[in-house]
């Protein structure tokens, strides 16, 4: 196997067949292994190379990645401390050849390079040292090889490569000397002297030093041997910039490299993206670094027939002599004559409206003028053979809620601040203005022209007023520079210019795509827009920079917000808004209905990813249907999308949309309304919410359904209603309500029924053994169908049960597996409680380090979780651990955090009771038995109906009894708790502590009447 790192990563078998290594992390891992030349790389370094400062949450992530490499066919051997790759590696061969230093070896070594070293991981901090070392070795080899070729009388073929490398490394004297000698060898001493002058200026400006004695001697030698006019300067018509150049330094560097490597480079992008300014700054940089002339040709005012004449006009002020020699030819003939033997960079600006003529002229000039290079700007490519493209992206945007420091790190904000200060002296991005600045930059997509137009409005508006008025951006941003080209004076003019260049079919597709939120696949665009040849039209709109296309496995086409706002206006003008909305809603209803059953099976990850890409479209389809009075479509959509919202972490938004759809007036099928109510109940009961808020939804679902439905959520509503009603009334739920589901042909429903029955058994104080058997079968069935979310829930239930009987290590293992499985879906809010339970069981095992590790991992997971109930549950668990450690202040702080996060939510009484009981332990430990007693009384009132939580309350009251000397009552209370839950529970540290001081062997449980009396007596 051969691995090549000197350029983009390339892997081939011994017979030359390519080996695909897909995925950024996999390529980073292979690059790290190969960059060490086949030596063993420690696992810690590999983790740094792949994950950087965000190490993986699972301990086997590296092993899993290595396994993927092996499956791809790469031979990776494990060692005691890490891994090594077994292959022929070009880096190793390159270094061997360079060490030999003879001309043929150097030529072979340089031939191994296909581009920048480790190009796939060029932005990865781990590889910077290796990239720098290999680049230095390459430059030294280039210099040595060039010198050897020049000594042999060659070197003419080296000028292009040496020029490009010197442009990248303008301070490298040995490289400059080689280029100077090569230029002299080709009869170009003037260009050689220009190279020296550029280097002299660069050294003086950047380092404050002069060229070395050796290079100065070469310069003197060239002067003596030639009759060059040393006063001549490279000629240009570039104008000096009137404003500072903000945020594009990296782009300039990359475009400079492209111009050095390709003879035609085109900067593409939508109007106002900054193509002209980037081209101008790039040309100015090249003028300072390379020999030759730079001429700027403005094509915006010209027509197709005048493109060649525009080039002559740019050159003609100083070319009358040459032009006169070929006065009888066409304008293109005269341009060829002028440029044929000249080293020139021609900047063709604004080619989009004359793209055919510009492309034809560029092709001819490049074919007949071998030393000519062209840098073009256009809203679409010229499509000439050999053309390199550089899409000019919008400036970097600040995140929502950015701090001043975060905002100012983004180029769009720096541009706005710079231009705003020019029209409103004293303006700065500060705490008082950063929110408005962020909103403006994000609303304008970071487009430089739009940002500059917005800044100009600050002459008469405050930054807050400007931000508030951007909904009417086209009327607001209408006062640009009087000297700018007409299409750049207002925001509307920028987009009008592009619109006028479109065919009627392209306009139709563009305006209809405005209905999408977050982009569209080609299939969705075709179905909704109903245009012929949609694929070709999409490609044309991408080429014309009116659509952006993602590089995903299934490309998606989207618009910048300004283009979308313009297209939406055109959609309204065409009177198509409602018909396109209906088509959009119909497409996404069908899409979500197709996906929904796959979300409860092995294919759920793939379908979740597809639905996530269209999350915006699903939500906008629901809201659009509600606004249009189409209640039936709104309900249909929420039924189809609800399970996605639940699994993908959009519970709050999903609940809001389901509620809004149900409230929308209009005719809706009864079975659909029943299913939507059932789903609303599921959303309400997720997390720590009060189950009582689901009553109305459950009742509606049961009343509206004819019980023949095939919708899986509706089918297990009966058991959910039994569970919830039992919690409210204290009556043991009927297990026979699940009988039909336990034998259902749908394995997902069967697994769900097993899990529900285990919960019903526990809530009713049923047997541990029966509940555990159901939980284990539920895990088996969910695993069988590959449903990760259900597997995680079932494993959590099973872990709870095995922990109760004292199998703590097995329970920790189950919790860990549950966390791993659900993390694959990405719902980290479900992971927090699993980590917390692991920490609590580690505490019981006396493993303090494992406790800290589990909590630290939970905190890392919590950093990206936004749901207050999940964060509150973690805070409550951390508070208990702090309490067991004796850290009363830390425990109270965590309890305060938990209660603060839930202050405005309707919280399940059982969670409130749990917090009360935990706080009561703290009060009792501090000697405040009166407060502890009151909290325990309140908790008992909240737990009636649920055997598990009532049993926890009995344990807490038993603690109270021991503190007032009533040990016998404590023993009977603990026995009562054991009876309520159907067996012992060795997973509760407070209970385990009490059992060490209270013997319940011979104790009898209290009857219901006696229990109430004893509780009142103990608590006072």
Class of secondary structure makeup:
mainly alpha
- Count of DSSP helices? 51
Strand order of the largest sheet: 8-9-10-7-11
Largest sheet: 5 strands, parallel
Q: What would the average pLDDT be, to the nearest integer? A: 86
Structure description:
The protein has 51 helices and 14 strands. It is mainly alpha-helical and 1020 residues long. Strand 1 and strand 2 form a beta hairpin. Helix 11 (249-261) crosses helix 12, helix 18 (411-423) runs parallel beside helix 20 and helix 31 packs antiparallel against helix 32. The longest helix has 24 residues, at 128-151. It is elongated. Residues 229-234 and 317-328 have low confidence and may be disordered.
